[in-house]
Structure formats: structure tokens, C-alpha cells
Amino acid sequence: AEVEALRNRLRPAMTLDSHCVGGRPYVIRSLYFDDEYNTAFADKLRGVQDRDKYRIRIYNFSDKLIRLERKSKYGDGIAKQSIAITREMCEQLMAADPTGLEKSDQPLLRDVYKQMRTKGLKPAVIVDYVREAYIHPAEHVRITFDKQLRTGLFSQDLFERWLPTICPLDDNSMILEVKFDNYLPDYIRRLLWSCNAQRSAISKYTLCRRFEPNCAF
After folding, report:
1. Mean pLDDT across the chain, nearest whole number?
2. Closest alpha carbon to 33 in 102, 115, 129
């Protein structure tokens, strides 16, 4: 009921993003990478201010759009680099094979090459969820509802639609994210006043690794 009330407040002021075809939510599947020391996981738990995460992302289990992304955190700010890659390149990265990446004209791929060669960067976990996203041009505001969070078990196959998954949340809560460039406009902030959510630095990645024996927390 709370989600529905908030949704009704946002709809007149914001628009659904381009992935919400026909007004429907869409499925996001991400394959997150970590190195042989689980640095990304450990840095998040320790609250390290400056850190990076690498992932490959697809939508609705399709290979029509595949994005390689690096998400960087600097203090309270977050930056993201993203490039489109082919299915062939995706399969190569899923195999943790850096061959030839050092010759790419894409700086992000060259960086992945360095991470794989020096730190053993490799696939770590599949993260699935269903997203409903609202956008506004002022300060690139983006408000998302993410539900049905699931973590893949025993496999990092990005394209296996029927991959066994399990919910990492005890109560299957919905995750609300509010993103913006420099500040959140007051009229958007007021739309959120009715929300009784608990503010926290949620990481779907760390949540979805909780079932691994070496990543228990």
C-alpha cells in the first residue's frame, strides 16, 4: 500500500524510463566481478570510502543490449562508466579471459584487462531484480523501485534464464533508490515525504553474496 501511494505521487511529476516498455517494470540481471581477495566485497563491509565495482548487465534476459560497467564511489559521490559490448565479448569476460583487451580503444576494457591480469578479477555472483524507474530532467533525478531481489546459486551464467536463485532478504522488502547529480530538487523531495522507508547504504552485491561460506556476514 505504501509503494502504491508513493507511485501515485511520482507519476504526475516524473516519467518512466525507456526500459519500462508499455509502462511495465523490467528485469535486470547483473553479473558482478571481484578479485581473488574479494576486495570489492570486503571494502564495502569495511566502509572504504573510495572503491570500484565491475559488472555486466542485461535486461529481460536478452542479449540485445549488454553493458559493461564500473561503478566507483568517492566519499558520498558515485560515478559510473558504461559501454555496450557484444555477446562474444561478454562470453570472454564471463570466462575471465583478458586476451586482447589491452589493445581495445575502450579505456574501460583496458582497465578490466589490468584488473584481470594483476588482481585476478573474475565473475563472482549473479544479481536479479525487477525494476520500476521514474526519471526527471532536473539534476537527472532517478527514483527506482527494485523488487524480487534474487541471488544466483552455483553459477555465473548471465544468459541462463532458469538459473536457480534465492532471495537474500529475510522479508523480501522492496528497495527504493533516489539518485541525482548535485542536489535533489525540493519539489521532488516533497513527493518523498510520505515515504516511511529506512535510509541505508544498501548494496545488492553484498546482500547477494551472503550465502557463500567465505563471504558470510
Report:
1. 91
2. 115
What DSSP designation does 170 have? S
Q: What is the pLDDT of residues 20-76, one digit of tens each?
A: 988 899 999 999 999 999 999 999 888 888 899 999 999 999 999 999 999 998 877
Say how far apart CA 100 and CA 103 lie, in whole Å.
Answer: 6
Contact in structure between 125 and 152 (CB atoms under 8 Å): yes
Phi, psi of 198 (to 5 degrees): -95, 125
Q: Half-sphere exposure (CA, 13 Å, Cβ side) for 185?
A: 14
Give dist(CA 27, CA 128) in Å, integer. Answer: 7
CA–CA gap between residue 82 and residue 70 (Å, rounded): 7
State how far the Cα of 159 lies from the Cα of 123, in Å rounded to an integer.
14
- How large is the C-alpha radius of gyration of the chain? 18
Cα distances (angstroms) measured from residue 13 to each of 6, 8, 85, 202: 12, 10, 34, 26
Judge whether residue 198 has pLDDT over 90: no
